């Protein structure tokens, strides 16, 4: 998961009962496999003393920043969203390295063309 990120910032008040998602996500970030996937990823923890809701901010390697409301989003959902965006980044990079345009635009007539060996419905 961390291989797609350059920075993770986790903010929470330790006394807030809604802190579970932040703590679980922090544990995932501190796992050996995660750290080995990108040792350069900065993990910052800000312990708050106010009523600000728990929040997780991630910065992808391309500089795009995304903020997650950790009160309403489970850690596993955040992890899944990061992995999905990361795969998109990998695909985009692969196309750019091959000199292809991104995003790939498929003409409408090709979308509706039947592939050989399949039944037309």
Automatic annotation (TrEMBL):
Any matching Pfam family: MRP_L53
Keywords: Mitochondrion, Ribonucleoprotein, Ribosomal protein, Transit peptide
Organism: Morella rubra (Chinese bayberry)
InterPro entries for the chain: mtLSU_mL53, Ribosomal_mL53
Family annotation (Gene3D superfamilies): Glutaredoxin (3.40.30.10)
GO CC list: mitochondrial large ribosomal subunit
Protein name: Large ribosomal subunit protein mL53
Subcellular compartments: Mitochondrion
Family membership: Belongs to the mitochondrion-specific ribosomal protein mL53 family.
Taxonomic path: Eukaryota, Viridiplantae, Streptophyta, Embryophyta, Tracheophyta
């Amino acid at each position: 998961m961390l291989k797609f990120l350059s920075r993770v910032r986790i903010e929470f008040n330790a006394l807030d009962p809604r802190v579970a998602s932040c703590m679980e996500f922090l544990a995932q970030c501190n796992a050996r496999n995660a750290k080995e996937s990108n040792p350069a990823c900065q993990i910052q923890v800000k312990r708050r003393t106010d009523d600000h809701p728990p929040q997780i901010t991630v910065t992808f390697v391309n500089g795009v920043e995304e903020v997650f409301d950790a009160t309403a989003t489970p850690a596993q959902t955040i992890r899944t969203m990061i992995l999905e965006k990361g795969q998109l980044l990998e695909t985009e990079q692969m196309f750019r390295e091959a000199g292809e345009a991104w995003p790939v635009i498929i003409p409408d007539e090709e979308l509706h063309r039947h592939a050989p060996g399949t039944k037309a419905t």
